[in-house]
Amino acid sequence: MSEVQSDGAAVEAELRTFIETLTDTETYQQFSEASEALKNDPEASALLQEFEQKQQRMQDGEFDQSVMSELKELQTEIADNETIQRQQAAQEELTELLQETNDIISDRIGQEFAQSTGGGCC
């Protein structure tokens, strides 16, 4: 086995350990449970779907006062929906944990770890 293959295997093993550790955290568990609850809440799912459809209509150029007022009303309903709020809070906490993880890795390797390179090739 070449040194590169050996390094790749070691990195893969450490990555699996990292993923297991991450998915075992209380933060990840809360996010997973909140996401599952949202998926199983038809009222909350319908609210989010309707909100996304209204937003899409606005992006497609259907900007009028009725769509704006419908969006505002949906935003209020979303803010009052406990399932949605729980999922969004859990998602924010998970995002924060992942950002902290990224910062630690970046410090250790001396460069931005999860930096966007703009995609594409050539």
TrEMBL record:
Keywords: Plasmid
Species in which this protein is naturally found: Halococcus dombrowskii
Stored InterPro entries: Com_YlbF, YheA/YmcA-like_dom_sf
Range of residues in the leader sequence: none
Superkingdom of this protein's organism: Archaea
Protein name as it appears in the record: Halo-CC-star protein HcsL
A Pfam family: Com_YlbF
Record flagged with keyword Secreted: no
NCBIfam families recorded: halo_CC_star_2
Keyword Transcription regulation: no
